[in-house]
Design a protein that fits this description.
The chain is mainly beta. It has 2 domains: about 100 residues, Immunoglobulin-like (Sandwich); about 600 residues, TonB-dependent receptor, beta-barrel domain (Maltoporin, Chain A, Beta Barrel). The protein is built from 9 helices and 55 strands. Strand 5 and strand 6 form a beta hairpin. The longest helix is centred in the first third of the chain and has 20 residues.
Length: about 900
């Protein structure tokens, strides 16, 4: 702690010294978009009555030397209404004008904000946090996008196993399935299960102009899973100012990344184009979590006339990366850390000895004799390192080892936006989009040879290959789990300004998706074929001899159709802003099993003439109602409150079993009720801002579906209802800039996430006709919700000790983090012990930037460095209670339930770094 305080003190001293050393007079400020909070690059700042002026830099900042006196400054930017700002300059001081916000005058410049339902400062009555492009670059350091948000209240993001793109985010105790992720207003949560795979969006961080995290039910009026919150990512439109940006980065794990963006700027007030490309490689910090990725971005705009504007966005990230998908017992990572925990049984260390690689250990790979070649690859090419995926052979990442778990995917997203102003009072904002998806993840299938010399088993590839070589067909193989998909959708919002006080919105949201799932052979691991008889339509024995690229085990197609609409009203007059909305949505699921026949013959054999097995559910309806009010007590103080209710349609997997095709006849919606109240304060000089709020969310009828047989012996799915959990807490965040050379940021949340009651009931299952009544009991009352810290604090200190130099130290404290667990696993009444709570920890990150003093305004060069986990803290970032695989057991029984040695965890990454240079032309 003394070292930490000493470092903070040193930065403050440097800031104060710099402030004194460079004292002059003039004025400065930051120019932002009033809707998005995004800084405006190249905005003009001119002193009235003179030709003296300047322009904002890449961070939207400007600074102008001027002798003491009173002035009026006009600030203008293409597509925005200019404003005049009075300025008083005092001797030896720079007058800080703070954040100056311009209103968009062109319809298109505000269009994406309306499509994305961006909250507006001092108006929208919800809790939200904004990160602009500069803040994203300063926090992210080329990590996964969610990691940029971990300095905002009640947001918990981790890298999980350390693979590139394998991050997760948790908001107010809800995981990604209940957090809406939107890119330019388009929902990107998986249409089947609601999850988000961040490796699909690897290049988005470089193209992002701002991120807004709306916590709670949010102001989003689409039928999205915005229970914990909505993460709204806005990519850069075609820039108004031309130029080229090149960034070269290096980092831990032999990380190398090259990024280039080019902008035409607006041409003749009509056209603008921005393009970008990214190339990223690295061996990974955790063993075998290498990355091999590309990313691209395209943005273009066309001002048809003053009333119509078109925009197109395209983004994608074709990538491959090694994964670390399996958590470990704490002892496997660090014997010393395990022994330091009061609730870790030392005897468990005999069962889980520390791995040779310690906290870098990953069980999902193994060494390989580099002479191994794939005998099924017969292309007359002397290349031994070939595996089959995406319809053809590719080189393995390395001839010297092989990953059991590898992810490969490309998910392009293309938006076409049309913004049209029919009259002064009526405007239409429409986006049509397409999102593809091709790829999958690898794993094993069949019988393989395992090495048990470590704390957990891993594949002995050489022995497996040698064994398969002696057999007629392979006993075990590497397989691909393929997920090919496409989604097309349309979002359209009609905005009607009824009068100066009241506005209305009407909207539709239509989507349809098709997702194809199957296993295919990736690598026969020394064998000649793999024998599988999974397809009812394959009758010849030769068809059962599977080769690389052949499908096996399962092959189905899932269809999801989605149709919704909403109506919203907004009242804004004087000190009051109020809104209310109601939305209705319908979802339909369809399942086609390409390996199973629709009917069977009298003898029980498949009837190949009956066609494929198809299961189609009825339309399921959901709805949401929410509203809020904000009141501006003074120019600096605003209060707000909101309330909402959501009836959420269950995900695909709860309605149709995509293994058997069984469907639920009467699926139950999950219900969410939310209340929020808060206030925010901004000082007149914008040096101090603070926002605080209290929230309460009740989740009722958390979904669980079980298989059963009805009285006619037909298979079905029954919904278990009654599970209930409460999420409540206090959140606060703010900034303080006492002097130009010194700034603070702070954020915190204290929460109580708890299951509120036990659940009991009875359902009928005639698989046992003599005893069809099945009782169920789940003993969860007063147990804590896991998977994220219920107490979080962040404090950042930024200093500017010299012109162009910036240093930031951010400390983050996490406590009351209960391990993840399944509430439906507590079926024994005497198992009421609290879930294991991980140790509290504090981790520090350092960010440094220096703009090189070049004698030209045409070229700007910045060098930067990021050091994450500055003091190399060892801590648990993800945990599962009572692990099924890595709990300390004797004779099959967990020795210490709900204790440290019964958990499986990911430790946080050790100290890592990222540094590089950015050039702007």
């Amino acid at each position: 702690m003394k070292k930490i305080l000493r470092n903070f003190s040193l930065l403050i001293v440097l800031a104060l010294f710099g402030q004194a050393a460079f004292a002059q007079s003039g004025f400065k400020g930051v120019i932002k978009d009033s809707q998005t909070g995004e800084t405006l690059i190249g905005a003009n700042v001119v002193i009235d009555g003179t030709t003296e002026g300047t322009a904002t830099d890449l961070n939207g900042r400007f600074k102008m030397d001027k002798e003491p006196g009173d002035y009026t400054v006009t600030i203008s930017y293409t597509g925005y209404d200019p404003i005049a700002v009075p300025v008083k300059v005092s001797t030896g001081q720079y007058t800080d004008l703070g954040n100056i916000k311009l209103d968009a005058s062109a319809i298109g410049l505000a269009g994406v904000s309306i499509i994305a339902d961006r909250a507006r400062e001092r108006e929208t009555p919800v809790a939200f946090s904004n990160l602009n492009k500069q803040e994203i670059e300063e926090q992210l350091g080329s990590r996964d996008i969610p990691l940029a948000m971990d300095v905002t209240p009640n947001v918990y993001a981790t890298m999980q196993g350390g693979g590139a793109g394998d991050a997760r985010i948790n908001v107010r105790g809800f995981n990604q399935r209940n957090v809406a992720i939107m890119i330019n207003g388009v929902p990107v949560n998986d249409m089947e299960n609601g999850w988000v795979y961040w490796s699909n969006w690897d290049g988005v961080g470089d193209a992002t102009s701002s991120i807004q995290m709306q916590r709670g039910l949010s102001a989003v009026n689409l039928a999205t899973p915005s229970i914990g919150g909505t993460m709204n990512v806005i990519t850069s439109p075609a820039e108004q100012k031309g130029g080229i940006t090149y960034k070269q980065e290096f980092g831990s794990g032999n990380f190398i990344k090259s990024t280039v963006f080019a902008h035409t700027g607006q041409i003749n007030g009509k056209y603008a184009i921005s393009v970008g490309g990214v190339r990223k490689t690295g061996e990974g910090v955790i063993d075998a979590t290498w990355t091999d990725a590309w990313a691209y971005y395209f943005g273009a705009s066309y001002n048809i006339n003053s009333k119509n504007r078109l925009e197109i966005f395209a983004v994608g990230a074709p990538q491959r990366h090694g994964q670390n998908l399996y958590k470990q017992n704490i002892g496997a990572y660090s014997k010393d850390y395990a022994e330091s925990l009061d609730d870790y049984d030392p005897a468990a260390l005999d069962a889980f000895p520390e791995a040779q690689r310690g906290r870098l250990y990953n069980e999902t790979w193994g060494p390989l004799n580099p002479t191994y070649y794939n005998p099924s690859y017969s292309n007359n090419v002397d290349n031994y390192a070939m595996q089959n995926w995406n319809g053809k052979y590719h080189e393995r990442y390395s001839p010297h080892f092989m990953n059991e778990r590898e992810n490969y995917y490309h998910k392009p997203l293309i938006n076409l936006n049309w913004y049209s102003q029919f009259s002064d009072d009526v405007s239409l904002f429409t986006t049509a989009y397409y999102s593809g998806g091709k790829g999958g993840g690898t794993g094993t299938y069949g019988s393989l040879k395992w090495d048990y010399s470590g704390p957990s088993r891993f594949i002995d590839f050489d022995k497996t290959i040698a064994n398969n070589d002696t057999l007629d067909g392979s006993a075990g193989i590497l397989r691909n789990s393929v997920n090919n998909q496409w989604t097309v959708g349309l979002i359209s919002k009609l905005r009607w300004n009824v009068n100066e006080k009241f506005k209305m919105q009407f909207g539709i949201d239509g989507r349809t998706a098709q997702i194809e799932h199957y296993y295919e052979v990736r690598d026969l691991l020394g064998g000649n074929y793999y024998y599988r008889n999974d397809d009812d339509f394959e009758t010849a024995d030769a068809d059962h001899r599977k080769m690389p690229g052949d499908k096996f085990n399962y092959f189905n197609t899932n269809n999801v159709d989605w149709l919704g609409g909403f109506i919203q009203g907004e009242y804004n007059y004087g000190n009051v802003t109020a809104y209310g909305m109601a939305g209705y949505s319908m979802i339909k699921y369809k399942y086609t099993n390409h390996f199973a026949t629709a009917d069977t013959l009298a003898n029980g054999d498949p009837d190949v003439n009956s066609g494929e097995l198809v299961t189609e559910a009825d339309w399921i309806a959901g709805y949401q109602v929410k509203g809020g009010l904000s009141y501006r007590f003074t120019e600096t103080l605003m209060g707000f409150a909101n309330v909402g209710y959501v009836s959420k349609v269950p995900i695909f997997d709860y309605v149709i079993d995509d293994g058997t095709g069984t469907k639920a006849e009467n699926p139950e919606n999950e219900k969410f009720t939310s209340i929020e109240i808060g206030a925010n304060y901004t000082s007149l000089n914008s040096k101090f801002t603070i926002t605080g709020n209290y929230y309460y969310t009740l989740w009722k009828d958390r979904a669980l579906s079980l298989s059963y047989q009805d009285a006619n012996k037909a298979d079905g799915i029954v919904f278990i209802t009654g599970m209930e959990q409460k999420h409540s807490g206090f959140e606060v965040e703010g900034t303080y800039r006492p002097i130009q050379a010194l700034g603070f940021l702070f954020a915190g949340s204290v929460n109580n996430w708890t299951y509120t009651k036990d659940v009991s009931g009875v359902y009928k299952d005639y698989s046992d006709a003599n005893n069809p009544d099945v009782e169920y009991n789940f003993y969860t009352k007063d147990l804590k919700v896991g998977d994220a810290p219920q107490t979080q604090f962040a404090l950042g200190l930024t200093v500017y000790p010299a012109k162009g130099l910036k240093a930031q130290l951010v400390g983050k404290y996490y406590a009351n983090h209960y391990a993840d667990w399944d509430p439906f696993s507590r079926t024994t009444e005497d198992d009421r012990e609290q879930v294991w709570k991980t140790p509290s920890y504090t981790v520090f990150d350092f960010h440094g930037f220096y703009d090189l003093p070049l004698n030209t305004d045409d070229v700007k060069v910045q060098v930067f460095v990021h050091i994450f986990n500055l003091f190399d803290e060892i801590y648990v970032q993800d945990a599962v209670d009572n692990s099924s695989f890595n709990a300390y057991r004797v004779d099959g029984a967990i020795v210490n339930p709900h204790m440290a040695d019964a958990a499986e965890v990911y430790l946080g990454l050790p100290r890592t770094f990222n540094f590089g240079v950015m050039v702007n032309l």
